[in-house]
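hiii so my PI (J.) wants the whole complex modelled not just the main chain, which honestly fair. so below is everything: two entries, each one labled with what it is. i double checked the lines twice but i was tired so who knows lol
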Amino acid sequence: DAKTTQPPSMDCAEGRAANLPCNHSTISGNEYVYWYRQIHSQGPQYIIHGLKNNETNEMASLIITEDRKSSTLILPHATLRDTAVYYCIVRSPWGGGGGADGLTFGKGTHLIIQP
Amino acid sequence: SAVISQKPSRDICQRGTSLTIQCQVDSQVTMMFWYRQQPGQSLTLIATANQGSEATYESGFVIDKFPISRPNLTFSTLTVSNMSPEDSSIYLCSVEEGQGKLFFGSGTQLSVL
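here's the output for the full assembly
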């Protein structure tokens, strides 16, 4: 899996958009960008993923730069419940050996939503 | 998305004993993964479990310490053997659904005294 770089922590005011950056300069052509979050004492939760086009779902938007070397996860209206550690991961959905591999987690960004 | 149930949710164990963690999925899945999350740390993959074959362990994890069973497509167990305080962690199972997305159980909080 390609490595990613994320800021260790960020603050955001409740109701504002939270923009979480991720650098993945060594991403290869068949690797997707995945975002997960882990709320304290829970298992990680899938948020969104994408290859090169911007993506949006009910939870968030994912903006991937044209060169694919970085991306931004956007939580449009952050709430206190969005306080969590957010992980940016790049991998091929088909794994390295023809099958799926477990994700490799970095340290992520601890997002704190302030009231 | 798959619903994943892990048992027990937490346990306190004595040094030298073993604990078996169960992971039940509400649908058939090919691959299941076991992770460990030590206090204040990120997740580390222990092993990948395919039904009908031996589990594949990551560097630093061995079958004698973390034996895994995968008897069918909806169930797996991870045993933490001969426990020491250093094994105190959260243990999580996960499954993969389409497009490389992984879903996780709620984890087992293990404390070893």
